[in-house]
Structures are given as structure tokens and as C-alpha cells.
Amino acid sequence: MVCLVIKQGGSAALPEWKALFARLMPELEVRDWNDPTVDPAHVDYALVWKPDPGRLEKMVNLKAILSAAVGVDHITCDPTWPKNVPLIRMGGEEPVMQMEDYVLWAAFSILRDAASWRVGQQEKVWTRQDAPARTSAEMTIGVMGLGSLGAPVAMRLARAGFQVSGWARHAKTLEGVTCYAGAEGLSAFLHACDTLVCLLPETPETTGMVTYDLLAQLRKPAGLINVGRGPLVVEADLLRALNDGTLHTAVLDVFDKEPLPASSPLWAHPRVIITPHAAADASRPARAAYVASVIEALEQGKDVPLRYDPAKGY
């Protein structure tokens, strides 16, 4: 029998996981990550979120590690994780749609200056904008990162009426999206946009990429939506850009330190909208369906998408 151990949601979530997989893959043995009776050598697959350092290394017969999230840095931060074992990012339609919905909400929030309405509500002040509101057709959004999430997000924004540009390391072609690529295309991409969506993976090349100088290249009024990874943005530069008007509004879902410390000045900044890393958080049924499809494919010797490439860092 194929064995799957799960570390997501705690032991209280195991009955639900077992019920879900009983319908999807009745032949799959589902065990709790903290079950002391589990022999690590008998584990075939591990579905994990922030696994204890050193534990995966002991599962010497692992066929694949499945991330409970789209990102995998919560796994790769453990220097002992078995790099010879396929590491698969969470996928499926639900997290993609969630991310599309979130970025669309964030874009409209920036478009209509919802941050000022929020401040007005808190201060009980009837705040109206002097200038007529822009329409989506007058706003150009640039999506940095055109992978499994970035590409559908960019096309969804285009269908919603925004002018959309996209940037990736390598050339891409997307319907309704003006695409730029590589270091040589970055400046032109930034100068074409007034709102930047960061959906890049966290790699040595992208960490700290969003600096004051980068934000200063955006057209005014400039906005930032970060749904990629917190370390991609230099927080001191972000605050400087917000405080001097280089950046008009930021919608932030991810941070260098999570949960965001209460001492962070971002909490009280009037031009910042904060969400608790919730842009794409697939339900357990959706995660289970995706994991079952991946295990079934791997058991049949087939390749699967969203496999982590250590050489690329994502």
C-alpha cells in the first residue's frame, strides 16, 4: 500500500484528510506526520507545510515531496531536505482562481483609491476625491513573473479591462498582454506601468529586487501589489517610496517576517492595505484532489507539472 504522511492543519485535520483521500484514492494509506508508529522508511509521499528540519531526510524511500502551498521555501530552507526527491508545488484550479480574484480586487482598490476611503471611515470623515476616478482602461498594470500564477493573473486583468504588461526572465506570449523579457526588457516594462504586481518566486536573483530605484521607474500614480514573497521587496525602500510620494498605494499580502510584527510601520501607514498571506489559500478538498492526481501520475511513471527546479530556485 502506498503511504502518504501529512503535515498540514495539525492532527485535528487528519480525519478530514482521511475522508477526502478515502473517496479520491481508497488504496492510499494516510498517516499523520506526528504519528510515532510511522516507519520513515515506509513513507512514499509527504504532503507538508513547514516540515521539521531533518525529518524528510529520514524518509529514505520518498517518491515525492508535495508542498501544501504554491511556494516551497518553507521546505527548501531546511538544508537537509532530500534534493534528489521530486518536490512538487501546490497547483490546481482553485489557488489560481483565488490569486486572480485577489489581484483583481487589489487592482480595483488601487484604481479607486480605497486606502483613502478606509482612512476616512476610521476617522469618520466623509472623504471624496477631487479628481474624477480613473477607469480600468486608463490604468496599466505590470505583472512581474508569468509562471503558473502570473500568466493567468495577467490575462484575467486584461479581460477585466486593464492595460496589461508582463515581464519574465524568458520571452512569453500571452493574449491581451504586452510581454517583456530579461534584464534588457525590465526598464521598458517598468516605464510602461503605473501599478506593479509582484508574482516572482523567491530566488537569489529576485530577493531584494524591488528597490526604491525600481519603484521610481513606474508611472504616477504608482501602485504595488506584492503577492509573491516578502523578501522580494526591500521594506525600507518601500516605506521611503510611500512616504515621499514615489509610490501612491501598496497592497501587501506577503512580508519578510510573518506574521508581520506589531511594531512594523506598515500597519498604520495610510497608503498601505495589508492582508495576512491569504491571496491564494486552497481548501483541503482542492488540495487533496490535486495531491491525488499527482500521486496517481507519479505511480504511473508520468511526469507532473510544477516540479521544483533547484537550478532555477523555483
Query: What is the C-level CATH assignment of the largest domain?
Result: Alpha Beta
Please tally the β strands and state the result.
12
* Biggest beta sheet attributes: 7 strands, parallel
Order of helices and strands: EHEEHEHEHHEHEEHEHEHEEH
Q: Mind telling me which CATH architecture of the largest domain this is?
A: 3-Layer(aba) Sandwich
The number of helical runs is 10
In the sheet with the most strands, the strands line up as 8-7-6-9-10-11-12
| Structural category | alpha/beta
Which spans of ≥5 residues are poorly predicted at pLDDT below 50?
none
Assign the CATH superfamily of the largest domain.
NAD(P)-binding Rossmann-like Domain
Distance separating the two termini: 31 Å
**What would the principal axes of the Cα set say about the shape?**
elongated
User: What percent of residues adopt helix (DSSP H or I)?
Assistant: 25-40%
List the domain count as a whole number.
Answer: 2
Q: Can you describe this structure in just a few lines?
A:
The protein has 314 residues and is an alpha/beta fold. It has helices spanning 14-24, 55-58, 73-76, 93-111, 114-123, 150-159, 182-191, 212-215, 235-243, 284-299; strands at 3-7, 29-32, 45-48, 64-67, 87-88, 140-144, 163-168, 178-181, 195-198, 223-226, 249-252, 272-274.
Question: What does this protein look like?
Answer:
- The chain has 314 residues and is α/β, with parallel strands linked by helices.
- It has two domains: 3-92 and 282-299, Rossmann fold; 94-274, NAD(P)-binding Rossmann-like Domain (Rossmann fold, 3-Layer(aba) Sandwich).
- Helix content is 31%, strand content 16%.
- The protein is built from ten helices and twelve strands.
- The strands form two sheets. The protein has a seven-stranded parallel β-sheet. A five-stranded parallel β-sheet has the order 2-1-3-4-5, with helices on one face.
- Strand 1, helix 1 (14-24) and strand 2 (29-32) form a beta-alpha-beta unit.
- Helix 4 (93-111) crosses helix 6 (150-159).
- The protein is elongated.
- It starts with a strand and ends in a 15-residue tail after the last helix.
- The relative contact order is 0.14.
